[in-house]
Design brief:
Helix content is about 35%, strand content about 30%. The longest helix has 28 residues. Strand 14, helix 8 and strand 15 form a beta-alpha-beta unit. Among the domains are: about 60 residues, Dna Ligase, domain 1 (2-Layer Sandwich); about 130 residues, 2-Layer Sandwich (Nucleotidyltransferase, domain 5), CATH 3.30.420. It is α/β, with parallel strands linked by helices.
Length: about 350
């Protein structure tokens, strides 16, 4: 059985990979993060959670493996676009294999696609008593077979060996929650380029997951439109000024573009948290954990904390790992970027 897996986080603008070895897990650490690398993706290669250009994606994956020096080609890849269906549900308690076989007959009304076109899975999170017997509470995940097949094709074309497909929100839970937050209720907010994942985790179990169809790239786009600047210049303005110092740019148009676009995203996150507390009597979210490339915009964390009235800190995706010296150097100050890749590498698939 494999002891090493590489978690593969394919995003709109970047592919990140983390090699995790769980053979030495002991004490406070859950394994070793031995290698890590990231490589940018050409524009248009990966859109809305789907591979659009298999050849360019495969070429980048080959470049990534050369750069990272990974010792295995066994990978677990993450999914989690706004088109992925994720919802909490209760089903009659039965063996998990039997339950998964029955899913197409139980969830058809919830899906925007035919069950024949969907990959379905159910992640149990607890039990509940029903009028007709015990029920399993859990999270339904449904993804397009076509989009997953395209992703697997690109990975295999790069000479890699897919061992599993996992929801990015589960990977975030796996890498960020053990330890300090294991007995708490926390909201993980992972801001990517085009998608923001919100996962509310209670006592180590994901209770609500939402994929919001916006991220850091929307801020860059808004600046580019408002100022008529090219994308690289707009990105530099975003990273330099952000929200807290938006007015320091000396340009009200730029400041408004940054603040208004960020406000839309933060309000969507806040509404998700309010939905959870409103539908779970007595629920209190104790902390927000911020990750992803979009989270690094100056002032965004403070803005989110103020809007949600919640203490917020950056998540350390390698916080539960023993980290090799080489990776420590590469990640210094950027630990919040690796949470998805590390969590995917922590998967128990084929171990």
């Amino acid at each position: 059985m494999a002891t090493k897996l590489v978690g593969l986080d394919i995003g709109t603008t970047m592919i990140r990979a983390a090699e995790v070895d769980l053979s030495g897990r002991a004490g406070a650490t859950l394994g070793t993060l031995s290698k890590y690398a990231e490589v940018p993706l050409p524009a248009g290669s990966f859109i809305d959670g789907e591979v659009q250009d298999s050849s360019s994606t495969s070429a980048v994956l080959k470049q990534l493996w050369s750069k990272g020096g990974f010792s295995t080609k066994d990978v677990v890849v993450g999914i989690g676009s706004a088109r992925t269906v994720v919802r909490e549900m209760e089903v009659a308690e039965m063996p998990i294999d039997q339950l998964r076989k029955s899913l197409p007959f139980q969830v058809e009304e919830f899906l925007p696609m035919s069950t024949d076109e969907a990959l379905l899975d159910f992640y149990p999170t607890g039990q509940a008593d029903g009028e007709r017997g015990s029920k399993l509470r859990g999270v339904l995940v449904a993804a397009s077979k076509h989009s997953v097949s395209n992703m697997i094709l690109a990975i295999e074309s790069a000479g890699l060996k897919p061992q599993g497909v996992d929801l990015k929100a589960f990977a975030l839970t796996r890498s960020l929650v053990p330890g300090q937050w294991m007995n708490a209720t926390v909201a993980i907010v992972d801001i990517g380029a085009r998608t923001t994942t919100v996962a509310i985790v209670e006592n180590g179990q994901p209770r609500l997951i939402r994929m919001l169809p916006s991220g850091g790239q929307e801020v860059t786009d808004a600046i580019a439109v408002a100022t008529q600047l090219p994308q690289p210049d707009a990105e530099n303005i975003k990273r330099r000024f952000g929200i807290a110092a938006a007015n320091e740019s000396g340009n009200k148009v730029t400041a408004d573009a940054i603040v208004n676009t960020s406000k839309t995203l933060v309000e969507s996150v806040r509404n998700t948290l309010m939905y959870y507390t409103g539908n779970n009597a007595g629920a209190v979210i104790q902390h927000g954990i911020l990750t992803g490339g979009g989270s690094l915009m100056p002032g965004l964390g403070q803005y989110l904390a103020s809007a949600c009235r919640l203490p917020v800190s950056f998540g350390n995706g390698a916080g539960t790992m023993k980290v090799s010296k080489r990776v420590q150097s590469a990640l210094a100050g950027r630990e919040s970027l690796v949470a998805v890749a590390v969590g995917l590498g922590m998967s128990e698939v084929n171990r």
